[in-house]
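Dear colleagues,

As part of the handover before I leave the project, I'm documenting each prediction I ran so the next person doesn't have to rerun anything. This entry is a single chain, and its sequence is reproduced below.
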Amino acid sequence: MLKDYPVNIQRDIQHKYNLLLQEINISRDPADNNIIDKAFAILLSDIPAEKDLTGKYTIITTLETALIVVKEIGLGTVSVIRYSVL
């Protein structure tokens, strides 16, 4: 859950999620909004508030990778959801 993270990390998570939505928005079907929100909720509930080997919270790393998948590789909503949730 988002509340398990420190306040500054909560803001960072929300910011990265909003960036991801903006990047996906270019090619996203409006019907995908609900699916993306559900996937984000699953991601928040499944990933513990722990740091990875780099010292970043795991969810931050996951969102950053999803941004790369969208921005640089050009994959769409399904790929982002599939990567993030799996």
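The chain has a mean pLDDT of 82. The chain has one domain: 2-85.

All the best with the project,
I.
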